# Entry
Amino acid sequence: MPVTVLVGAQWGDEGKGKIIDFLAEESDFVVRYQGGNNAGHTVKIGGEKYVLHLVPSGILHERPVCVIGNGVVVDPAAFLEEVSALELRGVRIDGRLLVSDRAHLIFPYHRALDEAAEAARGSDGKLGTTRRGIGPAYSDKAARHGLRAGDMLDPDFPQRLRQKVEEANRLLKALGRDGLDAGLLAEQGRELAARMAPFITDTISLLHEALAGGRRVLLEGAQGTLLDIDFGTYPYVTSSNATAGGACTGTGIPPASIDRVIGVVKAYTTRVGEGPFPTELKDSTGRMLGETGQEFGATTGRPRRCGWFDAVVARYAAMVNGIDRWAVTKLDVLDSIETIRIATAYRCGGRTHTAMPASVRLLEIAEPIYEEMPGWRQPTSGARRWQDLPQRARAYISRICELTGVKVGMVSVGPAREASFKTDM
# Structure
């Protein structure tokens, strides 16, 4: 039962979409297991750039069936808009894209509540939410009164949606916000349900039938390990489990069926939004990494904070995900740097930490302990095999592997599809 889980091993934006696209060519099913349209996967094919928010990256290949699992929160309007945009660009969707009937839904009242709650926190307490309604939708799920995709198939769905809007309006008014037009949203919900119906199905049974038939399944997460609701830098996290455990709860595929876990890491580190970031560089090197790596959020367009590779973070990610191999991305961004640093531990609170502290207060004052390596000062963008990389670039990746206890399985040296290759180490 060949099942691969692909996870981000930093704070998201590691280049998962590119690696998923690379692996999708040999997959029969590509399944998204958590998050919502607060994440973006960017894939570049030839001169074309695709930014995907809900649709799994495997849709850009002809072969795989793409599934949005039960662990995802789906904004129907955003989903249908993304589907239409892909079809206009010639991507074949019909029969290749399915949504779990157990996936929870996002509506305008979730977005309104998200924005109101973030504004109420003030500038000092804000979490950096994308205001896409993700947190409120997961809150409804946990509180056991959310609406699911399968509910859209019921005749009374518009009435249920209207009731939910009226309940949300009471909360919005308590937060000093105007309420929404419940009747209008109920009617819009009726129209969305009619358009969503062909996509909605029992994906759990579908995937188990695929496993029984020996089909190859690739499970893709959004965000990254350090944004996981349980294992991330809480409270500056997302509202779901972006780690490998979420792949099981978000698809219905049992742990025993998973063969391997691939962790995606940049050759340096980035983070979007608020929260601690021990290796962040606020100098010319940090600006160079951002400019060379085109570090802007695929969903929000926000500039990413940039810093040196953090082996404490990567070790932690390897541990909680059970990572078998690294996929190292954006190695080419480091091509011009003379001396490269790797954080191997933190000094904070009068102690040296080689493991990831749970306390964000400790992380906010953490001073990285670095080791230095010579840069290669040669272009790597033309490399298509491990042997093509400069010796110092290979040494840098090998050192990352030593510090984290995980072997490298893939390397990416540019945004194009052909700029990724498997290693034969």
